[in-house]
Amino acid sequence: MINVGIIGSGFIGPAHIEALRRLGNINVVALCDSTLEKAQAQAAQLHVPHAYGDVVTFLQHPDLHAVHNCTPNHLHAAINKQVLLAGKHLFSEKPLCMTMGEARELVALAEQAGVVNGVSFVYRQFAMVQQAASMVRSGETGRTFAVQGSYLQDWMLEETDYNWRVEADKGGASRAVADIGSHWCDTIQFVTGRKIVAVMADLAIVWPTRKANLAGQATFSAQTQQAQYQDCPVNTEDLGFVLLRFDDCSKGCLSVSQVAAGRKNRLYLEVSGSQASLAWDQEVPQQLWVGHRHRANQTLTDDAALMNRDVAVRARFPGGHIEGWPDAFRAMMYQFYQAVGKGEMPAQDERHFADFRDGAQVMAIVEAIVQSHHDQRWVDVSI
User: Fold this and answer.
1) Cross-strand bridge partners of residue 321
2) Which pLDDT tens digit goes with each residue over 320-331?
3) Domains and CATH numbers, the chain
4) pTM of the prediction?
């Protein structure tokens, strides 16, 4: 059995624990949070046997093999560094850290430590995303010349919607692009096999001042009518539009919004090739649209018998049995812990999860987008 510890028990920490427990060979043995009292309460609720109120003591837990960093963004770099220096395998929530300088340091530390390292880019794990990438690799879509898509949510639509991600010192200089646009960038690069090398961005703040609930507010939670508020200035974007250039000279465009009413979590992408187009919508994750010029379009479903042989195993259940985000999350953990079980990072062509280099590359894209908006010009992605 592999002994795993979790740092952070907010929105995403319990999702990690649930996915890990589905693997069968993982013991979640310890939980660490900002205070011992909070850690103990969450550990009891989540049935984790040991609780810690500081990272140093947590990392001394006996026979701890791997750590998941599920803390807010501004804590990622320091905690990731502590874990790596302790020689533990490390799975970090995205973003990997807050700056490219930190990202480069963490990539180097992970390689020096010789540990398995991963970043939580989950959407590449969906069966139909795997199928799309397989079709592009095999040449079924021809030469890729354009991509387009969006990532739309509505949980920040109203003036009274507030979260720590709004605050640049906690969430980073970018919000919508870094928080959800980063997922789109990783997914589209995975599907096409190409890297984004330059961007031109126009970002917008819909609510220059938001009303923060004095009692606090959890991610994706609803407001109450009795809440009391204080005005807080906002300097991170609610939405944005980005033109893209890839390393094979193909082009793309992306729109990102956390203020799109009715869109709960819609990551949509479309790939245009010389032989066929592909489109995938995360809110209808079991379907892959295939577009043709001279014959009827197709809607492929995640039935292993209908998928390309190299990715058919990614459909774990028979066709027609719904698989969604928790299943993709489990698949991500499965791939990561296959490597942990072997004690080393797989070769690049055999690695089926995002690693620290992927996390750093996407961070470079986000930084370029922020710089592009500030300068109102095309900016190269510099790693």
Assistant:
1) none
2) 888 899 999 999
3) 2-119 (3.40.50.720), 123-323+354-380 (3.30.360.10)
4) 0.94
